[in-house]
Automatic annotation (TrEMBL), chain A:
The keyword Iron does not apply. One of its GO terms (biological process) is amino acid transport. It comes from Microvirga guangxiensis. This is Amino acid/amide ABC transporter membrane protein 1, HAAT family (TC 3.A.1.4.-)/amino acid/amide ABC transporter membrane protein 2, HAAT family (TC 3.A.1.4.-). It is found in: Cell membrane. It is a multi-pass membrane protein. The lineage of its organism: Bacteria, Pseudomonadati, Pseudomonadota, Alphaproteobacteria, Hyphomicrobiales.
TrEMBL record, chain B:
It comes from the Bacteria. Residues 4-245 form the ABC transporter domain. This is Amino acid/amide ABC transporter ATP-binding protein 1, HAAT family (TC 3.A.1.4.-). It comes from Microvirga guangxiensis. Keywords: ATP-binding, Nucleotide-binding, Transport. One of its GO terms (biological process) is L-alanine transport. GO terms for molecular function: ATP binding; ATP hydrolysis activity; L-isoleucine transmembrane transporter activity; L-phenylalanine transmembrane transporter activity; L-valine transmembrane transporter activity. The lineage of its organism: Bacteria, Pseudomonadati, Pseudomonadota, Alphaproteobacteria, Hyphomicrobiales. One of its GO terms (cellular component) is plasma membrane.
From TrEMBL, chain C:
This is Amino acid/amide ABC transporter ATP-binding protein 2, HAAT family (TC 3.A.1.4.-). PROSITE patterns: ABC_TRANSPORTER_1 (PS00211), ABC_TRANSPORTER_2 (PS50893). Pfam families: ABC_tran. SMART domains: AAA. Gene3D superfamilies: P-loop containing nucleotide triphosphate hydrolases. CDD domains: ABC_TM1139_LivF_branched. PANTHER family: ABC TRANSPORTER ATP-BINDING PROTEIN, HIGH-AFFINITY BRANCHED-CHAIN AMINO ACID TRANSPORT ATP-BINDING PROTEIN LIVF.
Length: 615, 258, 238
């Protein structure tokens, strides 16, 4: 490891910091003004890359030269900016006042829609972009060759920072953006049309995302999946820098760039882990990042579970449901049982999340972490310690509970959007470990051969086994929700000030809730591992977390039974529609958006609402 | 022993002194009002007694025990109940469940995972609601009550902890005129019967002069007067500072009636 | 007054959640007059101003400004009609400099009046002239108050809703506020002034409304209110 090597690593770190900053800068600007954490920002980045990789070669055919290349990059960014305007006008404008959970989910709906649309428009193949004319030859630095394009990227970050700084300081638009970041209502009282300002901000933010993506084309090919990988990193940068702060994003990007470049030397396989650990540490010390400030008016909380009169038929209905479940093996075929098993498992998964979101008002965006920990815990104890299923399932549950205990310790100190981001980051850390620690976890391929014990194998026995465990777990959780502990969680959700004034220790209660919820999700994960016979990192990914949230949302977060109905509905829908179309994600995305906009109370909540109106 | 002894409390925010050397005493069964113009530091003092703020200097003693650094939760267990300017209740619960929740917390059962909450301490909660005249709506959702009634529920919640000291931040804000007097009469009766000391801030002078036994006047973070309502009413300095003459311009002249 | 009022409000009511705070206020504000809205803390003065600006949900039988209805218009449209608002807590943009704050408030003048410029405002508030590059968070309360008024004047309003401008600031600056209000009046700007400081309100207002617990107790000229000592003692304590 000589000096020149270190210098090259530092330069690599700077160039990735630049790219990251350009993208994250847009995200933080949009958040500052609109208070929406835009999941679709990564999608805009991906569109930028695809557009540039498609557009620039055509332009270069017309006229080859650096001017054409850079004009093409700029044009791509502008196109993405306009797409951002479209998203603002069609969607964001309608959800500025919505609870933050709904905002996150709706923008994730856009992510899903864009994933399918991108394949429709640009095709399923990765697209490798052209190299920049005039920058093809590497330069020599301390005797080592270094791509000259990377030097341009290194310069691009500070240039963008400078231009954004000028825009914010020297133009009326910039003054209004900064003013709106601080006090939106006052800006309106001075006669400024917020809608236009927000649209303008979205253009700027999307433009920067598009630019970030377009600048990548000489380095990496445009591909599906860019969206989620960049959004996770961009989230870390904005959160660490302090949400809404451009200089904070720059500083955070610099640190993260270097951490990645040199982290590779120290922990060659765990660069992602290092990055997310940084976020965890920063948030533990400064709950609002480097330059962030406490939310004066944070996003509103979604209305959760309320006390309701116990329906006289509740017991009967529960018995009928369990009875139907028990009799299913008599009427259903193997395939139906397989679907039913999965529905049960996901119902438990979603229900465990309900304890956090509907009861405690804690918006966890990384619940897949515990589902995955349960699955991996079971699979690993089977594979490495040769434990039977009867011991592997509890082992998975314990691993998930331990993970939740650890993560919960950090999470319960935070609130609002920072809390959601922290749970997301925690899930990404575990995802990264599963993905990169190949020797133990099998990496991308995961672990196969996770089969149930002999007595429980076969579709019918495993189904009944799952039915029994899920029923017990759900009944236990319901009991907890109705017990003083569940009421205490609701009390803290309804009014923190009042809860403190009657002596409730809010953090400790939430911590325990987090742990219980994680354990229940872990049980679901373990069951899932045995039902499929394998585990892989996708169980820990963002889409799995969003699945649970979607089920909750479909069912309705105000109701205890909502998640169970939501799990069934989503699963059946997926089962019926996925074979018919390749555009499943597009459809799912639209469903999520539609629920947020039209049926925020979900299926069960809406039906119950009708009933209440009639009576 | 004196119930509440506040000694030399000071607090500044970013160099601006919100409270300077504030000291006062409060006895059992006594109603003490803190008044003062907006921004005089009433809330600051109040929140330092309630545990929401930590003073820069000074001490708060409850029954001789130093509670200056105690959390709101700790203070609750030591016998401090409070109500808020904007009533804070658990809107997702029924009226009686609100009070039951407070009783559950009092009895250290808030982590209990098994027996249902809605049956615990119900009788006791109903008795408390009876005291504030809300027993007949016990099973209605708290979110369906009129605001004045929510304030009463909040009082019942605060009483559930069997407080020695009751802190009420603008107890009558947002209420209609008649409700105000009723609520304060009720508070005074309960305070007397249970010998609870009540410290409250208030903007409504009718409430202050009609119900407080002693009044403290804060201006710019400093106590400028303390005494019986009658003394305060007569105090020239108070009239000048609080009732609006402090920034007197030259005597009104050049009035141009429209 | 024969000309119709610039701002006309009939039967204004407003609630915060379930707590009703305004119970049917009716009044008019004419060009070039200062109308004081006096009453104790919590009487509903601030809510009245916010309701007119569309910042709190409110209902009114009729609410017009310059003959156009204000009903259900978004706040920015109301502001653009020429209604300026200076909130009680000033709400200047503390991350922005004095000049940037003024820029945020800039709007074209609607009538034939000569528009307010930073230079004109610096003459009105000489203190601000010395700190044009300073950020809001490094200013005293009185300076912030001046800036808040100047920022609203940059929008060249025909009427200003001014919420407790004298609150918590030094007497000498209160004097300056009075000067500023007189200057606005001289320009033909109407001022609806919510005040607790009786002497201040009495010194600069033409007419007055006394509100108590959200209801109007008095509506008339300042001279009449000055004469009605029992009412003042009862409602204002002065």
């Amino acid at each position: 490891m000589d000096l020149s090597f270190l210098a090259i690593q530092a330069l690599n770190g700077l160039s990735s910091a630049s790219s990251l900053f350009i993208t994250a800068c847009g995200l933080t600007l949009v958040f500052g003004v609109t208070r929406i954490v835009n999941f679709a920002h990564g999608s805009l980045y991906m569109i930028g890359a695809y557009t540039a990789a498609t557009l620039v070669p055509r332009l270069l055919e017309l006229h080859f030269g650096p001017v054409t290349f850079w004009a093409g990059i700029l044009a791509s960014a502008i196109i993405v900016g306009l797409i951002g305007v479209l998203i603002e006008v069609l969607l964001l404008r309608r959800i500025y006042g919505a609870p933050e959970l709904f905002q996150l989910l709706a923008t994730f709906g856009v992510v899903l829609v864009v994933q399918d649309l991108a394949i429709l428009v640009f095709g399923p193949e990765d697209i490798l972009g052209p190299r920049a004319p005039g920058l093809r030859a590497p330069v020599e630095i301390l005797g080592r060759r270094f791509p000259s394009y990377e030097l341009v990227l290194i310069a691009a970050g500070p240039i963008v920072l400078g231009l954004v700084w000028l825009l914010l300081r020297k133009t009326r638009f910039g003054v209004l953006v900064r003013a709106a970041t601080q006090d939106r209502e006052m800006i309106a009282a001075l006669g400024v049309n917020q809608a236009l300002l927000f649209t303008g901000t979205l253009f700027l933010g999307a433009f920067l995302a598009g630019l970030g993506g377009a600048l990548q084309i000489p380095r990496v090919s445009a591909h599906a999946g860019m969206d989620l990988s960049i959004i996770a990193e961009a989230f870390v940068v904005t959160v660490v820098g302090g949400m809404g702060s451009v200089p904070g994003a720059f500083l955070a990007a610099l640190i993260i760039g270097q951490l990645q470049a040199f982290g590779i030397l120290i922990f060659p396989k765990s660069t992602l882990v290092v990055v997310f650990l940084l976020m965890a540490v920063v948030l533990a010390i400064r709950p609002y990042g480097f330059f962030g400030r406490p939310e004066a008016v944070g996003g509103t909380h979604a209305v959760g579970i309320a006390s309701s009169k116990r329906s006289p038929y509740a017991g009967l209905i529960a018995l009928a449901v369990i009875g139907t479940g028990l009799s299913l093996p008599l009427i259903g075929d193997a395939y139906m049982l397989k679907v039913a098993t999965e529905i049960l498992i996901f119902a438990l998964f979603a229900f465990s999340l309900q304890l956090l979101i509907g009861v405690s008002g804690v918006v966890s965006f990384g619940h897949a972490a515990f589902f995955g920990l349960g699955a991996y815990g079971a699979a690993l104890s089977l594979k490495w310690f040769a434990l039977p299923m009867e011991a592997a399932l509890p082992a998975g549950l314990l691993l998930a509970a331990a993970g939740a205990l650890l993560i919960g310790g950090f999470v319960v100190r935070l609130s609002g959007i920072y809390l959601a981001m922290m749970t997301l980051a925690a899930a990404q850390i575990i995802y990264a470990v599963a993905f990169q620690w190949v020797d133990v976890t099998g990496g991308d391929n995961g672990i196969v051969g996770v089969w149930p014990s002999a007595w429980a194998s076969g579709q019918v026995p495993f189904y009944l086994f799952t039915l029994a465990l899920v029923t017990i777990a759900v009944l236990l959780l319901m009991r907890i929700i109705n017990a003083p502990f569940g009421y205490a969680l609701r009390a803290a959700r309804d009014s923190e000030a009042r809860a403190e004034a009657i002596g409730l220790t809010i953090r400790r209660h939430r911590w325990l809730a987090f742990t219980i919820s994680g354990a229940a999700a872990g049980l679901a994960g373990g069951l899932y591992a045995f039902s499929r016979g394998s585990v892989d990192p996708s169980l820990l990914g963002i889409p799995t977390s969003v699945d649970a949230l979607t089920m909750l949302l479909i069912g309705g977060i105000q109701t205890v039974t909502g998640p169970l109905v939501g799990a069934g509905f989503l699963h059946v829908l997926r089962d019926q529609i996925m074979p018919l179309t390749s555009l499943w994600r597009l459809l799912l995305g639209l469903i999520i958006i539609a629920i947020v906009l039209v049926f925020p109370r979900g299926l069960v909540g809406t039906v119950r609402g009708w009933g209440e109106e009639r009576s | 022993m004196t119930l509440l002894s506040v000694q030399g409390l000071s607090k500044s925010f970013g160099g601006v002194a919100a409270a300077r050397d504030v000291s006062f005493l409060l006895e059992r069964g006594e109603l003490l009002a803190i008044i003062g113009p907006n921004g005089a530091g009433k809330s600051t003092v109040f929140n330092m007694v309630g545990g929401q703020l930590r003073p820069d200097h000074g001490a708060v003693l409850l029954d001789g025990q130093n509670i200056t650094a105690a959390s709101p939760q700790k203070r609750f267990r030591l016998g401090v109940g409070r109500t808020f300017q904007v009533a804070q209740t658990f809107l997702s619960m029924s009226v009686v469940e609100n009070v039951q929740m407070a009783l559950v917390s009092c009895n250290g059962e808030s982590s209990a995972l098994w027996a249902p909450a809605r049956t615990r301490h119900r009788e006791e909660a109903l008795a408390l609601l009876e005291q504030v005249g809300m027993a007949d709506v016990a099973d209605r959702p708290c979110s369906a009550l009129a605001y004045g009634d929510v304030k009463r529920v909040e009082l019942a919640i605060a009483l559930a902890g069997q407080p020695k000291l009751l802190l009420m931040d603008e107890p009558t804000a947002g209420m209609a005129a008649r409700e105000r007097a009723d609520l304060m009469d009720l508070t005074a009766r309960i305070a007397d019967a249970k010998s609870i000391g009540v410290l409250f801030t208030e903007h409504d002078m009718d409430v202050v002069f009609g119900h407080a036994e002693r009044v403290i006047v804060l201006v710019r973070g400093r106590i400028i007067a303390a005494g019986s309502p009658e003394e305060i009413r007569q105090n020239e300095e108070v009239r000048r500072a609080y009732l609006g003459d402090e920034h007197a311009l030259e005597k009104p002249k050049g009035l141009s009636p429209a | 007054m024969s000309t119709p009022p610039l701002l006309e409000i009939w039967n204004l009511t407003a609630s915060y959640g379930r707590a009703q705070v305004l119970f049917g206020l009716t009044f008019g504000l004419h060009a070039g007059e200062v109308l004081a809205l006096v009453g104790r803390n919590g009487a509903g003065k601030t809510t009245t101003l916010k309701a007119i600006m569309g910042l709190v949900p409110a209902t009114a039988q009729k609410a017009t400004f310059k003959g156009h209805s204000l009903g259900r218009l978004p706040t920015y449209r109301i502001a653009r009609m020429g209604l300026g608002y200076v909130p009680e807590d000033r709400r200047i943009f503390t991350d922005l400099t004095v000049e940037e704050n003024l820029e945020a408030g800039r709007k074209a003048a609607s009538g034939g009046r000569s528009p307010w410029t930073p230079e004109r405002l610096f003459k009105l508030f000489p203190n601000l002239a010395e700190m044009r590059g300073r950020r809001g968070n490094q200013m005293s309360g009185g300076e912030q108050q001046m800036l808040a008024i100047a920022r609203t004047l940059m929008g060249n309003p025909d009427a200003i809703l001014l919420d407790e401008p004298s609150e918590g600031i030094a007497p000498v600056i209160v004097q300056m506020m009075a000067e500023a209000i007189r200057a606005m009046k001289a320009e033909g700007v109407a001022v609806l002034l919510s005040e607790q400081n009786w002497a201040f309100a009495a010194g600069i207002s033409d007419r007055a409304i006394v509100i108590e617990r959200g209801e109007m107790r008095f509506h008339g000229t300042m001279a009449e209110l000055m004469a009605d000592e029992p009412l003042r003692a009862e409602t204002l304590g002065v």
